[in-house]
# Entry
Amino acid sequence: MGRTLVNRKDLNPEASPEAAYGARLRSAREAHGWKQDDLGARMGYSGRHISGVETCHKPPTRRFSIAADAALGIEETADTFEREWREIQHGVLLQGFPEYVGYEGRAVEIRLYNIGIIPGLLQTREFAQVLADSAVRRGVITTEQADERVAVLMGRQHALVRPRPPMVSVTMDESCIRRIVGSRDVMDAQLQKLVEFAELPNAMLQIIPFDIGTLRPFNLPVNLLTLSDRSVVAYAESQIRGHLEREATSVLPLLTAYHQLQTEALSHIASVAMINEIREGTP
# Structure
């Protein structure tokens, strides 16, 4: 028999991220009409364990979260328990970013604009590791969080090679390819990866030359995702926070500005030529 509600404990989702996770788990379970033992049986856990997570007596784990997503049928959505677990474990991820990643994995078109750093979707593991290690040295994150950051990034790149990959348009400031990150070998391999990306049939790569001056409409990185229902989601971040925007009145002006940016950028062919010219000067 499933557990009764005689000793049901009131939950306060505002108390902590773990409390919010537990309250959401209880709500999702009850929406299916399941008792704790019922959900536990579907997940491979005891009802007591489910109770412990719901009431914050047991911390959620990645394995637990993946099992919950499968049992509740939400593993392919943007709002999974695994995503929430990652937010709890790795608070260094900017607000809105985990939710953005969920959308990114399902987008039919991805448009990226970056300044200074090559976009994460196109970074080599070595390039990404240099950036993560730098954050560790500055005391921003721990070594474990750096490893998780790189792992999340590598996982995101699977979106580019799924059976029906999205169209990916990448527009980068010239500073992205001229700024040396790590050793010259690391940078050379990174530039080579950009060239290989540009050869994909679903890819468009454009460089914004330094001489564009005031015609550049963005001062911060911007990501735009077109979903299967043709709606567009925007994500932008500063040094300290990220923001996910779904309202059309806010997103469409960004999309227009992105198109204007592309008209000022070098062509796909000219952009690849610039990257190769830089590589030729790299020992």
